[in-house]
Every structure is written in C-alpha cells, then in structure tokens.
Amino acid sequence: IQVLLKLWRNGFSLDDGELRSYSDPTNAQFLESVKRGEIPVELQRLVHGGQVNLDMEDHQEQEYVKPRLRFKAFSGEGQKLGSLTPEIVSTPSSPEEEEKSILNAPVLIDDSMPATKIQIRLADGSRLIQRFNHTHRIKDIRDFIIQSRPAFATADFVLVTTFPNKELTDENLTLQEADILNTVILQQLK
C-alpha cells in the first residue's frame, strides 16, 4: 500500500487523516520506527505482511489544516426498502405464456380503437399482461383478474399504481382518464 506521512509544526498525519500529536507516546513510537527505517507496527497490521511504500512531506513550518473531504461515489449495492411492490416469487413468464394469456383473455378488444397493454402483478406473485382499449374501465381490469384467477373472486383486494403509489378507488374511470396506459398495476389484498 502507499502511505503519505506529512510532518506539521504541531503533529503529523497519515494520508489525509487526522492530526496526531508529537507528544502522544504511541505517535512518538510510530515516528521513532520511521526514523530507524522500520515499518511501524500500525502499518504492519494494516498490510498483513504486504509491502508498504511510505512517502514523506515536510510541512513543519505550517500548522495542520484539515483537508477537505473529496467526493467519493457510492460503491456499494442498493437495497429497496418499504416498497408497495410485492415480491415476485415465481419466475418471469415466457413470451409464449404471455402471448397465451393475451390470446385466451376474456376481454373484448375493439381493434378500431386505441389499445394499451397493462401488466398486472398479482398478490400471489404471478403476473398477467393484457391488452385493453383506452375506453375500458378500471372495473374491467378487476373483472379480468377474477376471470383469469377465480381464487381472487372472493378476495377483498385493491388495485394500486406503482409510481407514484395511488389506489385506484373510482373503478368507473376509463384507463385513459385514470392515466394508467401502458403501466403496471399492483393487486393488494386488504
């Protein structure tokens, strides 16, 4: 590893770290090791027997000034917390299965009218994709879910948009009026 030792009037610092006082016995021992040409014990522990390149800068005519922290981009991984989106436990359906659900769907489409595709993520983790006309109503989505998955016929559920999360309470609105064309709708059990 590469370490930069900066000597200041009132102490020393390693890389861009905090000021270490010359009067502290641990720090004095660190500097004595450097003067003898040895690797200080602190750095030996840091590299676990690896190689250390120690560079030094003399700033003994200056007082220590804490350096500004440089921006460091986040390098970890993100985790989504508190999402209304249910966890998908099934594997994504294949294009053939999606096509089959579209072809077997009980929704009547008027091909002379504008149409949209709606993806519905069900509470059981599965999903449905269906074409609807812009003039279909939210209650048509509810009916489609019940006809496609009869197990939900007796379940009390609501339909919710993904972002921003909004419950679709007025089921008489058309899909266009509800502004849910080409979107994902979530089914949530009450």
TrEMBL record:
The superkingdom of the source organism is Eukaryota
Name the PROSITE patterns for this protein. Answer: SEP (PS51399), UBX (PS50033)
GO CC: one term? nucleus
UniProt-listed GO biological process terms: autophagosome assembly; Golgi organization; membrane fusion; nuclear membrane reassembly; proteasome-mediated ubiquitin-dependent protein catabolic process
Question: Which residues are in the UBX domain?
Answer: 111-188
Where can this protein be found?
Cytoplasm, Cytoskeleton, Microtubule organizing center, Centrosome; Cytoplasm, Cytosol; Endoplasmic reticulum; Golgi apparatus
Q: Which SUPFAM superfamilies match?
A: NSFL1 (p97 ATPase) cofactor p47, SEP domain (SSF102848), Ubiquitin-like (SSF54236)
> Which UniProt key words apply to this protein?
Cytoplasm, Cytoskeleton, Endoplasmic reticulum, Golgi apparatus, Nucleus
Transmembrane as UniProt keyword:
no
Identify the residues that the record assigns to the SEP domain, covering every copy.
1-65
- Coiled-coil regions listed in the entry: none
Instruction: Extract the InterPro entries matched here.
Output: NSFL1C_SEP_dom_sf, SEP_domain, Ubiquitin-like_domsf, UBX_dom
GO molecular-function term, one example from the UniProt record: ubiquitin binding
Which protein family is named in the record?
Belongs to the NSFL1C family.
Name of the protein this chain belongs to: UBX domain-containing protein 2B
What is the source species? Casuarius casuarius
Source organism phylogeny: Eukaryota, Metazoa, Chordata, Craniata, Vertebrata
Gene name linked to the record: Ubxn2b
